[in-house]
């Protein structure tokens, strides 16, 4: 039973969190270069100190409304498998330290899409935060080409 | 560092040694008789053998041993390095390279070939060296039983786990009475330093050379030898007291040590004959010298080198191995002593080959990843600096501020840094050229032609990745040049040419690119046949009016070369389209010029690095794209009269009376759904794989610039139609167009179908 740290962030009116270990850095939004033939949630590529980094609209990826990126949006640069991906979110809200006991199982009313990425939910001071498994959001395609 | 890493280093060193070996042999072939060249060649083989012994690569050891033996005959002037001798040696160098590769990658080698060469080498070493029999050991045959006799005495100390017991031995027959006539004797105190071994010299060889001068007795002082646990295998511990009775005098003795003089303490003085015995008596040798079979030392000798080369000469098998050997071979204990010595010497020698190279050119071995990281960072620096300049210019209208001057300086510095970093990756083309020498030899052998390869500009530097990818097309072209280009010797003679054909391979820098030329003095291209062939293959109309140049260039056409059909053609054409494609894949261009009866010249122009690319920056549907300049033939502004609709959605553009399909890049890449009006844009006439031309429609041309290539696959996935990405001066990512894929897509293959697209999951 050991604590682990999570980074919590906001998309629209919902809160989500990911393991802090997979987050490389957090940076502001910069316009991305559109990719041909890309799924709609791939906003394009940005230059991260010389590396070309794909930006994913996490809102769309999670099945919600497409984001309209502004300067106030934030990109969470995360390591997923061997690759580095930028996740566009509305804002980073918190760093949480939780133990496994704090994490409740995903309720079974969730449909397949939510079950796919949600690892569980956290109750924090009256807020509900959904723990996301990044590897399941970007499955084989991200590691295949590696 | 585990064993595999050490082994990897050994193989890397082998590559260097093999290159050294080949260039040395070629120098000898050109008539160079510098003893240092011979020594360098010998050292190379010796180092490979030494290292291979340490890793138990027996095939490699035994071949290298035979090779070394023969080379030693050349070194000691017993064998004249004639053309014939060198031919065998060059082949041996090839086999040695094969064996090394086989040992590294686990492949197999042509055993019959290596066995034949071993026989040839042995024949050279034995057959042409009558000197070997009359050489050093006065009684080689008798020495063997003698060696056996004292062995039991020595056996015990030899297996003593404290270390090695000193075993004095004498060269020549010590008991024998000195000759009656007056011959001066030299007393030599020889104490090698570490550097002696580091430079590839070996005490054993020096002693052997000494023994050739006359009667000799040797006492080896091993007092300085520490116990095994304290022993540094690269240190020199032994010293020798030698007395030689020779009529060559002190100068003769000194000349033996000519190359070692600086790396050892050497004390030579001549004493009178009758004093010798006294002197040696005075020494009160602690042990009775063991008569020593000199032929063991003499690699060229008739002693069973076949049976035990690994044992006798597995020098670099560190001191531990030598200790084991010592107990095993205690029968001939003196051998063990020699072994220990050789072990120390050769391990030092192989390890120190690098040092030697360092002395010559001061090099270090760096992981390529590190260099690439540095290059990436510098690329970033350049971009950042550009962005900074841009924002300063925007915010500061008067351009004389000190900030501006500082920025200018920064700009110069970053550029210089970028150039220097790029230079780190640059390597001379020499290794590839050397490989071509081998290809020429092999092809010449197969075809029965006599060919001379002349290389020029081997030190021209180019990026390592370019070098790596150059070998294949070059091999192909050399094969073609020898096989199809050059005539048979008889025919050449009949034509009044030198029966020996010449293939000239030249590299040079020209305006920021490397230009490689391959010229032969063969028959040139038989245009009639090429033309006929092209007509037969429906490549050109029967009545087409083609210039000579156009005909020559037909050989690069994909449809032209179907190897089985073309093989009877006296011109060229085997797989030249493959060559052209691989050159183009490197961002290069290839052209040919040919004169009937005088030969052909292929000219390749390649970028100096694959990390950057010359591109045309264009705008398509609001996006910035980069089109590789090498693909673009010309750019043009289409006129309404030149555009012709064809079928439902196709459009053709007429360029000088030929029709070329128009391809809307924005449409192909899904940036827009409707065809753009060709009159609003610019057409880029491109040539793609397979030779087809297409006019790519883009909205506007921004300019030309050199861009740094960035991988998309690293963090994303392959995108059809896009070759890679780059970062422009404003810090934004721009995509580099994959012209071939776009052209292929315009032929009806949908880009989307090509791959299971990016993240659909």
TrEMBL record, chain B:
Positions of the UniProt region annotated as Disordered: 125-146
So what does this thing catalyse? ATP + protein L-histidine = ADP + protein N-phospho-L-histidine
Q: Which residues form the HPt domain?
A: 1-103
Question: According to its record, what are the GO cellular component terms?
Answer: cytoplasm
The Gene Ontology biological process annotation of the record reads: chemotaxis
- What residues bear Phosphohistidine in this entry? 46
* InterPro entries associated with the record: Bact_Chemotaxis_CheA (IPR051315), CheA-like_dim (IPR004105), CheA-like_homodim_sf (IPR037006), CheW-like_dom_sf (IPR036061), CheW-lke_dom (IPR002545), HATPase_C_sf (IPR036890), HATPase_dom (IPR003594), His_kinase_dom (IPR005467)
EC no. given is 2.7.13.3
Q: Which residue range or ranges hold the Histidine kinase domain?
A: 408-610
Residues in domain CheW-like? 612-748
Give yes or no: UniProt keyword Hydrolase.
no
Return the Low complexity bias intervals.
128-146
Please provide an example of a Pfam family that matches this protein in its UniProt record. H-kinase_dim
Q: Name one GO molecular function term.
A: ATP binding
> What is the enzyme's main class?
transferase
On the tree of life, the source organism's domain of life is: Bacteria
Q: Which UniProt keywords apply?
A: ATP-binding, Chemotaxis, Kinase, Nucleotide-binding, Phosphoprotein, Transferase, Two-component regulatory system
Tell me which Gene3D superfamilies the record gives: Histidine kinase CheA-like, homodimeric domain (1.10.287.560), Histidine kinase-like ATPase, C-terminal domain (3.30.565.10), HPT domain (1.20.120.160), SH3 Domains (2.30.30.40)
User: Is Oxidoreductase among the key words of this record?
Assistant: no
Name of the featured protein: Chemotaxis protein CheA
Q: What is the lineage of its organism?
A: Bacteria, Pseudomonadati, Pseudomonadota, Alphaproteobacteria, Hyphomicrobiales
